[in-house]
Amino acid sequence: MRNFFLLFVLFICNPVNAQKYTFNTLAKYSSSFENIKNEGVTYTNSEDDSYFLRIRKDKSSLTASLFDYKNLKLHTFLVWETKVNGEIVFHYDYQSTSNINYFNKKDYSKYVFVFETLESNDSINKVNLKVYGSSKRKNPLRNFDLQIKNHKKNLFPVFRIHCMHPYGFLESLNNFKTGVVLNAQGNTLSGKLIEFKLEELKDVNFIIIIPKQKKEIY
Fold first, then answer.
1. Phi, then psi, of 105 in degrees rounded to 5
2. Count of Cβ atoms closer than 10 Å to residue 10 Cβ
3. C-alpha 185: how far from chain center
4. pLDDT 10s digit of each residue in the chain, 218 long?
5. Residue 116: which of 130, 103, 100 has the closest Cα?
């Protein structure tokens, strides 16, 4: 895994009133569902999983969404990409900030997440994760088999944020002190098979600062 240094700074007039976000990890996971494969890029901070940046690509444009679960804010950007020494570099143009109001942690306060290690060696842990609607429920809502590789950082939240919808914002899922999920196989809420695979993992280093009013990112 190569280290890859990126630095994006949003210049503002009044930094006292700005919100600063630091990112040190890039992860690209693919998902396979009903013979359809999708990929997405997520930037996170391994020391603070209360926010993350997700890049999405459609037919005509790239967009980025910065989710701040601590402050319940969603910041949006237009994105364009260039290549530097063969590497893709994303550039961001800040668009807007809105409130996140579509989830409530209280709705999931009774949920129970049960992790069971099925097999373990020096580098890989095979783990089963069951999601129950409450401690009284006998049948799980969802069931996942995870392959987790030992890592110097705790990168399980990256998988949680990227792949565990609608539980991505729940810190109670952070069961592992260190490790990164290589792949996972499980069921959707409707009972259909879904698979996830880690396609890329990189160290990065960049900062985004959100102003009160729209400014440009250079």
1. -60, -25
2. 22
3. 17
4. 333 334 344 433 344 567 899 999 999 999 999 988 888 899 999 999 889 999 887 767 788 999 998 888 999 998 888 888 887 788 888 888 999 886 677 777 888 889 999 998 888 999 999 999 888 888 999 999 999 998 888 898 899 888 888 888 787 777 666 789 999 999 988 889 999 999 999 999 989 988 765 443 43
5. 130
Residue 148 amino acid letter: I
Confirm if 181 and 147 have CB atoms less than 8 A apart: yes
d(CA 53, CA 26): 9
Radius of gyration of the chain (CA): 18
User: Closest Cα partner for 201 from 149, 165, 166?
Assistant: 149
- 10 Å CB burial of residue 126 (0-12, 13-18, 19+) is middle
Alpha carbons 154 and 152: distance in angstroms, whole number? 7
* Matching residue, tokens 């409450």: 134
